[in-house]
Amino acid sequence: MIVVTYHDDLKEVQADAPWSELLGDAQSCAPFDRLAWWQNLAETCDILPLIAVARSGEQRAVLGLMRRQRSILALANWYAFRVRPLFTKGADEAALLTALAADLAGQAPHIELSPLPNENGETDLIEACFRKAGWAVFREQSDVNHVLPVNGRSFAEYLASRPGQLRTTLKRKGGKVTVELFDHFDANAWAAYETVYAQSWKPEEGSPPFLRRFAEEEGTAGRLRMAVARHEGEPVAAQFWTVEGGTAFIHKLAHTEASKPLSPGTTLSAALFERVIDRDRVTLVDFGTGNDGYKRDWMEVVRPRYRLTMFRPAWPQNWLPMAKIALRRLAAGAKHV
Q1: Could you tell me what percentage of the chain is helix, strand and coil, using 3-state DSSP and rounding each to the nearest 5?
Q2: Which fold has domain 152-282?
Q3: Where do the structural domains in the chain lie, given as residue ranges?
Q4: Cα separation, 66 vs 293, whole angstroms
Q5: Fold match between 3-144+304-335 and 152-282?
Q6: Which is nearest to 291 in space by CA: 80, 162, 163, 144?
Q7: Which fold has domain 3-144+304-335?
């Protein structure tokens, strides 16, 4: 028998051993799959979580969600590289997720999940389970994810395969800035990052408290990899990475507009790539979402990210948005005929 429950108090996780273990540091291989990430969202971004749990014996399926008016969305913000359901080892994933999808019909008439990966069939599974549970499901690509499979290379071997212009820039300008690397949280380095970001081309930071707390927690856990570049003593570039489960995640990077001729970001990226490849021995570097041109200089593989928009077809208020999506798809298909 599968039982579905919903929780807005994340402290309740501690009372359920399989659930607590699933969302703990030992089981997670990415920050977005940890309870600490959800707690940070709830406490610094003013998000009320809706954690959906399907359980059968010791088996668990967990889906981090939140409400927005009459809709339900993935429990995520702009800092998340991806979202996905989580399962205890050996769980009957399809059965648990189908039961969860069926029960969610009583919670909201519309659900949207994004950005979803599909490297291990995650999007396929969610789509199939929600369809089986009676939802009308619309799937579309919402973004891309640039990654670098290291494939056993040293940093020197990897760098030799980079575009000639990138390697030339490193040779010509690498000595124009000094680089500091940190594997723990340093308040002065973080202040430098904030100074750089404020003078960069980037938009206003989405949630500085969220990001700082995340950096502090990752520093305490030994997963933080941070770097600051200085020119004539002043910070001109900063980057914030984390490392775990054999993957290096590139979370934030910025350089000041005035320092652009120095290419400090290129020098800083090279220093961090060398650190995670040669010292941390990662097997993958993940540059997150977004199709920025500079990512292609460093990365070698582009993976799609998906959005699933799901409606209860018997709900009259859903008919118009469903029709709009269907018409948009027909129009897009006609362009390719």
Answers
A1: 40, 30, 30
A2: Aminopeptidase (3.40.630)
A3: 3-144+304-335, 152-282
A4: 33
A5: yes
A6: 144
A7: Aminopeptidase (3.40.630)
Distance in angstroms (rounded) separating the CA atoms of residues 118 and 155: 28
| pLDDT tens track for 237-277 | 999 999 999 999 999 999 999 999 999 999 999 999 999 99
From CA 64, how far away is CA 44, in angstroms rounded? 17
In the structure encoding, which two tokens stand for residue 34, read together? 């940890």
Is 161:273 a contact under the CB 8 Å cutoff? no
Confirm if 52 and 104 have CB atoms less than 8 A apart.
Answer: yes
Give tens-digit pLDDT for 268-281.
Answer: 999 999 999 999 99
pTM of the prediction?
0.94
Token duo for residue 248: 């290096």
CA 133 to chain centroid: 27
Ramachandran angles phi, psi of 232, nearest 5°: 55, 40
Distances in Å between the Cα of 313 and the Cα atoms of 94, 101, 124, 145, 319 are 22, 14, 20, 32, 7
